[in-house]
Amino acid sequence: MIRDGEIAGAGEMDEAALLGLRSERLNRRSFLFGSAASLGALGLAGCATTDDLVHREAAKLYGPVPEKKFPIPAVDVSKIDPKYYRRTVRYDTREAPGTIIIDAANYYVYRVEGDGNATRYGANVPRKGFLWNGDAYVGRKAEWATWTPPKEMIVRQPEAAKYAAGMPGGLDNPLGARTLYLYQNGKYTVCTIYSTSDPESIGRGVTSGCTGLLTQDMLDLYERTPIKTKVILLPA
């Protein structure tokens, strides 16, 4: 190996050789500097914020579901407040696992899991004038249900009259992919927990007595909810 002092006294080395060696050293320095810069850039590129990670996980959770009767599109999670994403939370209650609790005041639906935990879903809820509370139960379940507007709705919204005989199931149907029908004392309350494809409705009071979950959330709740499941509607 030739050191700097040796280069200075090496009369036999021609100018081209000296230039070549200097060039090699410059290239080596450039390589080292460039590598450090590249590693720094990679580090910055891989530095994701908590919000980024939450949105990525939500995008997976609310991704497309193509294998259903009517392929379900992905939800635009950017249109939902992250606090309404589905998650497991601490929830102390004496209610049995499987019980559904609707907290309309805070736009949440809980499914009690036991051991102080619950699955929490963001929801849309009845608007003012249509809120109600008390105990109910799931008296019926349906996939891609036919929607028939109540007579009271047709009076309020005459445009719904064209569906008086029923609107077939599908992506445009207001009940969506899955529906849980709520009963009290053996009678249908005319209210449901249904699936919605409108992310901007979550966290709002928009319905005439029903409670809506994003379709991907409703698929999860529906599969784990048998007939006769207790439903509690908290005062709003």
From TrEMBL:
Domain L,D-TPase catalytic: 99-232
SUPFAM superfamilies: L,D-transpeptidase catalytic domain-like (SSF141523)
Pathway: Cell wall biogenesis; peptidoglycan biosynthesis
Superkingdom of source: Bacteria
Keyword terms, alphabetized: Cell shape, Cell wall biogenesis/degradation, Glycosyltransferase, Hydrolase, Lipoprotein, Peptidoglycan synthesis, Transferase
Gene Ontology BP annotations: cell wall organization; peptidoglycan-protein cross-linking; regulation of cell shape
UniProt keyword annotation of Lipoprotein present: yes
GO cellular component, one term: extracellular region
CDD domains: YkuD_like
GO molecular function: glycosyltransferase activity; peptidoglycan L,D-transpeptidase activity
Any Pfam family matching the protein: YkuD
Xref: InterPro entries: LD-transpeptidase, LD_TPept_cat_dom, TAT_signal, Transpep_catalytic_dom
Family from the record: Belongs to the YkuD family.
Protein name: Lipoprotein-anchoring transpeptidase ErfK/SrfK
Lineage: Bacteria, Pseudomonadati, Pseudomonadota, Alphaproteobacteria, Hyphomicrobiales
